[in-house]
Amino acid sequence: MKFGHFDDAAKEYVIETPRTPLPWINYLGSQDFFSLISNTAGGYSFYKDAKLMRITRYRYNNCPLDAGGRYYYIKDGDTVWNPGWQPTQTELDSYSCRHGLGYTIITGSKNNIEATLQAFVPVNDKCEVNRIILKNNGTEDKHLDLFSFLEFCLWNAQDDSTNFQRNFSTGEVEVIGSTIYHKTEYRERRNHYAVYSVNKKIDGFDTSRHKFIGMYNGFHNPEAVLAGESRNSIARGWQPIGSHHLKVDLKPGESQSFIFVLGYCENPKDEKWEAPNVINKKPANELLAQFQTDEQVDAKFQELKDYWNGLLTTYTVHTEDEKLNRLVNIWNQYQCMVTFNMSRSASYFESGMGRGMGFRDSCQDLLGFVHLIPARARERIIDIANTQFEDGSTYHQYQPLTKKGNADIGGGFNDDPLWLIAGTCAYIRETGDFSILDEMCAFDSDFSKAVPLMDHLRRSFNYTLTHRGPHNLPLIGRADWNDCLNLNCFSEEPGESFQTFGPSEGPVAESVFIAGMFVKYGNEYADLCEATGLNDEAAKVRAAVADMNEAINGAGWDGEWFVRAYDAYSNPIGSDKNEEGKIYIEPQGMCVMAGVGVDNGKAEKALKSVEERLDTKFGIVLNQPAYTKYHVELGEISSYPPGYKENAGIFCHNNPWIACAETVVGHGNRAFEVFKKTCPIYLEDIGEIHKTEPYVYCQMVAGRDAEIPGEGKNSWLTGTAAWTFTTMSQYILGCQPTFAGLCINPCIPDTLEGYKLDRTFRGVRYHITIDNKAHVQKGVKSMTVDGVAVEGNVITPVTDKTDVDVVVTMG
């Protein structure tokens, strides 16, 4: 069942009913100011950091679902309604929501009044713009009351939701004309505030939630709206809000627009203000002056659309598959940008308070983002490196505003260090910018101990090299990519569990997955060393990689597939010896991607085992058989019911690893089959089962052991976005940046006779035609560059042209 349709020309998804299976959301913002907005106008806004600089509130556990947002109430006689249906849930005569790239347009109509909410965050401004257009489509005059509403958060979202004994006494606002200033904590911080304004003279306002809604009313029936009059309330403590009241008279056929702006403002750093409670209104005045007319808003909106149209020309594909084109050219790259901005911090499944930026997550997100805005990727790599420890280990997460590690989560995830190599190498392959390796980067944000980035990569590699267990495999630590596989847990008494992280503390668990990473990214690090003239170091790295390869082929091989790990007592996990959890997806994908077992048939066997034992209609499950009882020695993984999350759920994040692995052994048909199963655009017709948005990937789909197989969860913020774009753009379509140039190495279904790629690489636009009339799955027979035949399949970077034509013949 569909709940909408794609409009490819406009680059929008059009939702046709407000009653979607879950709230279907969009992200507004691309740099510092961000908002989440659902198809019914729910969501929240923040500046840079969803925890520390939250501007508006949102209630995750509230019912009905999706409570809190930017709401516009229209009172037409005795009828009160919203263009997005929520929160009044008044039945509408018509409804649509158009989620575009960085903007959302919601249109509803009731009793001959059409209301359109256009919401976006401009490219270079710290604000969310909401333009409301009211139109009278009837034959009689209309006299309406329009009420805006949003609820301010008291900046620190976690403290705001817990520390009521203090917070209920701190809220402060000021109203001047049509502008509401949210200045809570200004007397404490003296440098920032929020502003909520409209470009018309208002007929009333409210800043007290109690006065606007009423003590026992809700968002759906606020007292001020029902009465048709604002209370002109000033919040003193309690819960500050922003609400404007405008009386609107419309003749038949007439329309009026109202421009609302929610902004973040800071005092200029060189200006001091002595009065602690008198805010400097200059930043607000300068911001709001840019959004007083429709012409100004139109120009800002066009700038946003031009921004995205420009970014998406970097990589485009033209195939006979409309859905594939739509995914690659629009939605997958858009999601890559969002995950780069958010990591895993702020979504409708992540509260914005618990995680911050993930070290591993952000490094992986770079893989799908680096081609879009390389300069921002460079900045992010340096931010990530600054949080690393001197021994090469890392925090698992850090706060984006402070760049300090998340002490609550800590470290001990032993795959994290190697991802820094992955992200940095991806950046240099894309840009050719080796100078990043000379950038001085701190340890744990302490710049007194800063060393060049290259030394951080060296420490990342050496951390894994020097932390190995009894099978010569890397220590898993607290966990590896699978956060819930905690193999250093053991129990001495019922209800007690303990963790060990080092040889001096007792038995240690090992990870075959990290071993596969070590081979893959160790080889990339060796390539980097050779490219920078460090040939002796490269030779040592390759020797260590070969040693790890041998360990995987030995203790890491179970006969038909790769072992997942060894627990703290050297018992195999993900082995035929186990009663449950005999085989896991992760090592099969990562080890084969690294080339392990390709020369001896083990790679083919492992992938065949995945197809036979893990594959389902909706994708490849993480492990089988599912755990049916709790295993304390395995940690969190068996705490989930069978078929959910890490316990035999379908993790969309690592399904692409299998697709990549299939291309390594030349299986283009199988690679594309795996790719399609978890791709949301191919699942649009089963929206009532899948539930999450059909235009973006979700983190997890319920596996075959679950109550509802195929049900998606945790959409938007997932490493799936970057990995699926990498899989399709580089491994399947085969356009691979390398240190030496652009390698063209497709691995496609043999039914695909060809396609065209346009790829901007190091400032040059490459127009690539792939000819597969031979109907092969892999293999480049010949390649011409501007009509000249070249040896091999690597295009040497061009410096004297802006456009280059490339023709590749497969065979």
UniProtKB/TrEMBL annotation:
SMART domains: CBM_X (SM01068). The keyword Oxidoreductase does not apply. It comes from the Bacteria. Pfam families: GH94_b-supersand, Glyco_hydro_94. CDD domains: GH94N_CBP_like (cd11754). Signal peptide: none annotated. Residues 11-277 form the Glycosyl hydrolase 94 supersandwich domain. The keyword S-adenosyl-L-methionine does not apply. SUPFAM superfamilies: Galactose mutarotase-like, Six-hairpin glycosidases. One of its GO terms (molecular function) is glycosyltransferase activity. Residues 307-734 form the Glycosyl hydrolase 94 catalytic domain. One of its GO terms (biological process) is carbohydrate metabolic process. Keywords: Glycosyltransferase, Transferase. PANTHER family: CELLOBIONIC ACID PHOSPHORYLASE (PTHR37469:SF2), CELLOBIONIC ACID PHOSPHORYLASE-RELATED (PTHR37469). This is Cellobiose phosphorylase.
